[in-house]
């Protein structure tokens, strides 16, 4: 019988009707958590639909002997996000774990990106992460404990083409997570990020062009179920001393990602002029410049089976 690492805990997983969110909700329930399965049933680009994938996940959890309720509210609105958190309290009496997973995509090359596409993606990913975390934080503070897990992406950590809105939101989420970890450590609240490599509806929207086909073939092998164990671990008491970190999960690989730190410095006793920067500072620093790399340029090897 596998160990139930989340016995007695209540977890809220946003965007958990499909893909990675679904895999995390199911595995958390398997480990004993009572789960709020939040998913408004939107399309990949954020349009409303009549689908209710959250119901299917709830049914699967209940059929397996667990406890779960469905939530259809959007994370993008602060009041709606409050209802999602309140549903955990109303249904199960508390909230212990928040997984900020909800997301949409509206990819465009930057000079063709419309303001509404920028705002829609920022609202769901970044503002949605704040909105849900803000409401949950009040309960975590009062009960002196809680766990935040936020989903980031190497599109933000490293870079990718045609994803300025998504990349900006995902990198900002890592800063938000670190701030939460710093501000709430006194209340025994932890906050970490996961950058997942896994096939999902959003990844499926990447154009299947000749230059992407090999990359997409590799990603198809990395299923959402391979990301879920890291979320379960970070949500458990076994990770009591893990906070403020960013992990990447790529199939059977786990990486601890770096965070921005000084890599080289130069000093000029009399202060810098523009000419001195041109002639001295930049030539000294140039060998340490970061290249215009994309995520597949950095993770350029096949994931092990």
How does this structure look, described?
With 305 residues, the chain is an alpha/beta fold. It has one domain: Rossmann fold. 42% of the residues lie in helices and 14% in strands. The protein is built from ten helices and eight strands. It has helices at residues 19-30, 53-63, 78-92, 115-143, 154-157, 164-184, 210-220, 228-235, 274-285, 295-298, and strands spanning 10-14, 34-38, 68-71, 97-100, 146-151, 189-197, 246-250, 253-256. It has an eight-stranded mixed beta sheet, with helices on both faces. Helix 1 (19-30) packs parallel to helix 2, helix 1 packs across helix 8 (228-235) and helix 3 packs parallel to helix 4 (115-143). The mean pLDDT is 92.
Quick check: average pLDDT? 92
> How many separate helices?
10
Helix-residue proportion: 40-55%
The structure class reads alpha/beta
Q: What is the CATH fold-level name?
A: Rossmann fold
Let me know the largest β-sheet.
8 strands, mixed
Total number of domains: 1
Radius of gyration: 20 Å
CATH superfamily: NAD(P)-binding Rossmann-like Domain
Approximate strand percentage: 5-15%
Compute the separation of the termini in Å: 25 Å
Shape: globular
Return residue spans where pLDDT drops below 50 for at least 5 consecutive residues: none
The largest sheet has its strands arranged as 3-2-1-4-5-6-7-8
Q: CATH architecture, please? A: 3-Layer(aba) Sandwich
Query: How many individual β-strands?
Result: 8
Which CATH class? Alpha Beta
Query: What letter string, H or E per element, gives the SSE order?
Result: EHEHEHEHEHHEHHEEHH
